[in-house]
Design a protein that fits this description.
The chain has a single domain, classed as Nuclear Transport Factor 2, Chain: A (Roll), CATH 3.10.450. Helix content is 24%, strand content 45%. It comes from Stenotrophomonas indicatrix.
């Protein structure tokens, strides 16, 4: 299933899936924050480390299923599969955009 996503979100899912040539700076604003698994990651360096660690630990593949906008945030339901117990799962990715970048992402 393919859904039409704003450019920063499309780039994020390419990054999350390990697409060569896709970098954190192409998706996230400089001071962006990511909340995942009860941890916060802020800034390009911390977010890049989080992406690398997550990919190495779980070899995840993320497929966006549905998008809606609520209270100014882009909410994407995505199927996440990988080498973790209970795979696959559907997780909610709540993005806050500013211009052409993600300023906040909360995953739950």
């Amino acid at each position: 299933m393919s859904i039409d996503l704003p450019a920063p979100l499309s780039r994020y899912f390419l990054l999350a899936n390990g697409e060569p040539g896709t970098h954190v700076e192409q998706c996230f604003a400089a001071g962006a924050t990511v909340g995942d698994e009860r941890q916060q990651h802020q800034g390009h360096t911390a977010i890049a480390a989080w992406v690398a660690q997550t990919r190495a630990a779980y070899q995840q593949h993320v497929v966006p299923l549905q998008l809606h906008v609520q209270d100014g945030r882009h909410i994407v339901s995505a199927e996440v599969s990988g080498t973790f117990p209970g795979s696959p799962v559907v997780l909610t990715h709540a993005f806050t955009l500013e211009g052409d970048g993600i300023v906040a992402l909360d995953i739950h």
